[in-house]
Amino acid sequence: MSAAGEAGILILGAGQGGFQAAASLRDCGYEGRLVLVGDEPGLPYQRPPLSKAYMKSEAGIEQIELRAGAFYADHRIELVNARATAIDRAGQLVLLEGGAALPYAHLILATGARNRPLPVPGHDLAGVFYLRTLADADALRGKLDVARRVVVIGAGFIGLEFAAVARALGHEVTVLEGAGRVLARAVSPDMSAFFADAHAAMGTKLVLGAGVVGLKGEGGHVTGVETGDGTVHPADFVLVGIGVVPNVELAADAGLEVANGIVVDAHLATMDPAISGLGDAVAYPSRFAGGNVRLESVQNAADQARSLAHRLTGKPAPFDAVPWFWSDQSDLKLQIVGLAAATDSAVLRGDPASRRFSVFRFRDGVLTAIESVNRPADHMLGRRLLAGTPAITPAQAGDESFELKSLLAK
Ligand SMILES: Cc1cc2nc3c(=O)[nH]c(=O)nc-3n(C[C@H](O)[C@H](O)[C@H](O)COP(=O)(O)OP(=O)(O)OC[C@H]3O[C@@H](n4cnc5c(N)ncnc54)[C@H](O)[C@@H]3O)c2cc1C
Questions:
Q1: Of 35, 36, 202, 266, whose CB is crowded by the most CB atoms within 10 A?
Q2: How far is the C-alpha of 340 from the C-alpha of 327, rounded, in Å?
Q3: 84 CB less than 6 Å from ligand 1?
Q4: How many whole angstroms from its chain centre is CA 228?
Q5: 1-5, 242-246, 321-325 — which is least confidently predicted?
Q6: What confidence category does residue 4 fall into, taking pLDDT thresholds of 50, 70 and 90?
Q7: Does an H or E element contain 27, and which?
Q8: C-beta separation of 129 from 140 below 8 A
């Protein structure tokens, strides 16, 4: 197989990270051919508003597109709307659905992740939705026009953000979570308890330890969600938010190493020097995780893209950005910086009843993460502290009279 055209940098996946890689390569002075291949229609867009302002109809498509169309022409970024079906490493080609092939001198895999499907009977009934893409969001938004009973399966970020929006729009919302607390994979038990209370106060019915065993339907449309105890939770429609799986198949089929993500090194290179990877799709070595980790955040995808653009234009440095994340639920802005393990201890700073507080996480007396609600100063300070060797004690973290800023002056 051969392909016409100059072999430059080809980016596979036109999401947050793929877009940023293209933009940063031009910022860094890359002058060669730059092709951005994505299988979603339209211009690259941001996903976070899909479960926030866009879902509330407070933002339209123009507000969520990463750049207007002219940007791509101005920066000589070729946008190709197609699904890639294979990577030919020997020939340095990406094969597209329909038979075309695109050559590359360097390939960046930014294929992201897809929704984890609900593995129970009834999962394919009409009225069962997921939320990953603009198309998913448009389908869901259409359901929010008329007051309905909504069941959300999964109390992760997407499930809870959607629940907050649906409640604000007057829907009857039930959230079913299999674990014993909300946001269990991401935050401390204290923070989980705060968000569980906050959603209950919004009027959402939250059921913990609720394993979903099946979906009930009539005439092919979902009518309820059955949990392990035999309860059927009535539903006019259902949102499934039970996590994602990374899009690794192209890489695996091409013989690249895959282990909960496409494996890359500290420079975001795969085992093939002509192929790099970034974003939700990759597992990379992180000092914050103490090993390989796959993160799902805008910061991770965008910072990895910038790091890679620097390397590919002759300024290599290991990727070492401090991980951070945010989630908006009603008037609560949760910000997390660092990576905590489930067993890390937690020190409260401020009063949760004030809806402005932080939880500082420690392992062996060393700060690993800060979870903040409506306290952006703690979060910003955490980004600076964690970039170095954070010298803060649990006692200082818990003492509101202790000036955190004094730690930076040293
Ligand atoms: C509803 C929602 C809310 C979110 N909220 C937040 C938030 O508040 N804060 C935060 O930090 N993060 C948030 N995230 C996560 C964040 O959006 C992702 O971490 C980020 O988009 C990852 O970027 P990426 O480039 O790795 O992947 P993506 O943005 O998913 O892009 C990957 C692209 O590659 C395409 N692709 C895959 N395979 C192929 C193929 N074979 N051929 C062609 N194209 C392909 C995909 O269709 C997709 O368009 C949210 C995500 C969602 C879904």
A1: 36
A2: 17
A3: yes
A4: 29
A5: 1-5
A6: low
A7: helix 16-27
A8: yes
Chain centroid to CA 205: 25
CA of 321 to the centre of ligand 1 (A): 19
51 lines ligand 1 (CB under 6 A): yes
Torsion of CA 147, 152, 158, 163, to 10 degrees: 40
Whether 56 contacts 169, CB under 8 Å: yes
Rounded CA-CA distance 67/44 in Å is: 8
CA distances from 378 to 30, 107, 336, 350, 369 (A): 37, 39, 10, 11, 11
Q: Which phi and psi (to 5°) does residue 181 adopt?
A: -150, 160
Give the other-Cβ count within 10 Å of 155's Cβ.
29
d(CA 243, CA 29): 37
Name beta bridge partners: 345: 362
The strand pair at 282-286 and 113-115 is best described as unpaired
Residues recorded for the chain = 410
Q: Which of 19, 183, 297, 328 to mutate to test the pocket of ligand 1 (most atoms within 8 A of CB)?
A: 297
Please report, in angstroms and rounded to a whole number, the separation of the first and last CA atoms in the chain.
Answer: 60
**Ligand 1 geometric centre to CA of 310 (Å):** 22
355's tokens: 């809806």
pLDDT tens-digit map of 173-187: 999 999 999 999 999
Residue burial 365-401, b: 16+ Cβ < 10 Å; e: rest: eebbbbbbbbbeebbebbbebbeeebebbbebbeeee
| Smallest CA separation from ligand 1 atom 34, residue | 13
Residue 2: predicted pLDDT: 47
Instruction: Describe the chain by its helix, strand, coil percentages, rounded to 5.
Output: 25, 30, 45
Helices 16-27 + 298-312 axis angle, to 10: 30
CA gap 149, 138 in Å, rounded: 18
Say how many Å lie between the CA of residue 112 and the centre of ligand 1: 5
Edge-to-edge strand list for the sheet holding 221-227:
212-218, 221-227, 232-234
pLDDT tens digits along 35-52: 999 999 999 999 999 999
- Could you give the domains of the chain? 8-114+245-312 (3.50.50.60), 117-242 (3.50.50.60), 331-409 (3.30.390.30)
